[in-house]
Each structure stands twice: as C-alpha cells, then as structure tokens.
Model the fold of this input.
Amino acid sequence: METADMGKPISVSKNVDLRSAPEAVQYFAGMAGKTEGRTVPVPGRFLNYTVREPYGVVAGIIPWNYPLLQAVWKIAPAIMAGNTVVLKPAEQAPLSPMALVRLAAEAGLPPGVVNAVPGYAGGGGCRPVPAP
Done:
C-alpha cells in the first residue's frame, strides 16, 4: 500500500516503513508509565513543579513522504500521553494513514481517539474527499 500510494521502491517500504512503524509503536507504548510530574527545588518559600497532563486533541499533518511512519509518529505518542488525534494525511498519499486509523479502531481503541480528515489542502482549505 505504501509503495502503491506514494511510489517509493517496495524494498524501502518493506525494510524501512514496515519495520520501523511497529518499533515506534512499541517505543512510545513503553513510555506510557514513565511520564510524571516533578517537584523542582528553587530558593525561597516557593513551590515549583511540573504537571504532565494531556493537551486534549492533537492535530497531525502528514506529509507525502513516509506517510505510514509519519502517521505512527503522530498517533503513538499522542495517545500514550492521553490525547486524541486528528490526522490530515497528504492528498498525494492518504492510503496508509487512513488504513492505520481503521486498524486502530479494529484493534479496539474507543471511537474518536484516532481520527482522520482526508482531503485537499490547496487553496481554500481542506475539502473532504467524496466516499467511493
């Protein structure tokens, strides 16, 4: 799908994209229990601390090159941190990001956690792609 969608050699799709995407998911999944807030010592009678909280909705704009990896690099860390994601895949190569969104739903992620808005970004903003 990656090769058919954006024209890269199938050897690159097999040896880079299809190997790196699962590794990236595993890496970011491993970070899930490691994010925490910290108290930072400061002089005086002050309390200085950080809090790790989800942003809410993360927008991920995917370029045409490496669309699968770019989508994984947007989705995995965002949901690991407790956010939802809206992807805008490149109109030149939307197939693998859209398939990844479908697979996320099939894998059991709740509706609305990973979303995609395909379409054309030139000129007057995004225009939805009509359903086949």
User: Anything to note?
Assistant: Strands lie at 39-40, 48-49, 57-61, 84-88, 114-116, 119-120, 127-128.
